[in-house]
Amino acid sequence: MSSRTGESPSTPTSPRPRVLVLRALGLGDLLAAVPALRALRRGLPGHDIVLAAPARLATAAAATGLVDRLLPASAPGRAVPAELDWDGPPPDIAVDLHGNGPASRGLLAGLGPRDLYAYGRAGGPVWRDDEHERERWCRLLEGHGLPADPEDLSVPPPATRSPAPGAVVVHPGADAAARRWPMERFAAVARELHRAGHRVVVTAGAAEARLAASVAGLAGLPEGAVLGGAGGDVPFDVLMALVAEARCVVVGDTGLAHLAAALGTPSVTLFGPVAPRLWGPPARPRHRVLWHPDADDPPRPGDAHGDRPDERLLRITVEEVLDAVRGLPLPGAGPRADQAAVLRPG
């Protein structure tokens, strides 16, 4: 990742051809794109990969080991950025991993790339609504001759050490209320795990200080159990280390769930408005998903960005979550031991 003073992120520093990837979304979106980014890295070894994404994801993008430079780009919500600050020669290849509309395709096409990988182009791969996010972008690259494995989602473990090794990480926040399980239920889970002898840490983003403090307080956790919040987001290298060395992560359908999957940390993820088969972790014993749709529900039965908890999310009980945690394999036990080892108090 380039950090040269005064240098534009898009300014070429070598004669190597460049691939510009548009994915100007959040942390979970970045991690869901790891298999596609790995396919680009393997299939185009002589290219620099430039990722157009929010500047706050620079450390996370670097941590994947799959991105050479980040080009800051963002827009409200999940909208397409109005422009890209690309001032060098046209990219050799532009890749639209942002969406399926003319806005993202047009933004990249306007830079004049030699080739454009995107859905919606004549003769190219066809967009499918009912498809897992990782599979969708891998299939796009497969359509352009680049082998891609949607299960190849791991990222290297961090060099940083965890501030709470072996802790159960509880993350009650989410970008939208529709994916936010009630605070009182998170607190009840944290309280029971704490009573069982586990160290429990509650993580919070910059805007989630009150939520995290309330969960920790209701759970009776000791001082210092909250990481992040009032002081801002947990630095990504610290967050990554915390998750990498955790016993497990209990979380809603948000970025931290994707981080647990990328690091192979046991997790329990709670789903509401969107089906796990579209955004969930790989089907491995170390990852448990809880979801209670109606029998005739489509894959997206609710509004993922709604302002109240989705009814399917509210059907998940505290005891269900505790049972799922108790049934998780021990971290690092390996794929076979996954199926028999269970999480026990520290």
Automatic annotation (TrEMBL):
Ranges annotated as spanning the membrane: none
Top EC class for this record: transferase
PANTHER family (alphabetical): LIPOPOLYSACCHARIDE 1,2-N-ACETYLGLUCOSAMINETRANSFERASE-RELATED, TETRAACYLDISACCHARIDE 4'-KINASE-RELATED
Domain of life per record: Bacteria
Molecular function GO labels: glycosyltransferase activity
Keyword Transferase on entry: yes
Entry's EC annotation: 2.4.-.-
Keywords for this protein: Glycosyltransferase, Transferase
Keyword Ion transport: no
Gene3D superfamilies reported for this sequence: Glycogen Phosphorylase B (3.40.50.2000)
Composition bias, Basic and acidic residues: 291-311
Protein name, entry field: Glycosyltransferase family 9 protein
InterPro entries given in the database record: Glyco_trans_9, LPS_LOS_Heptosyltrfase
Pfam families according to UniProt: Glyco_transf_9
Region (Disordered): 147-167, 289-311
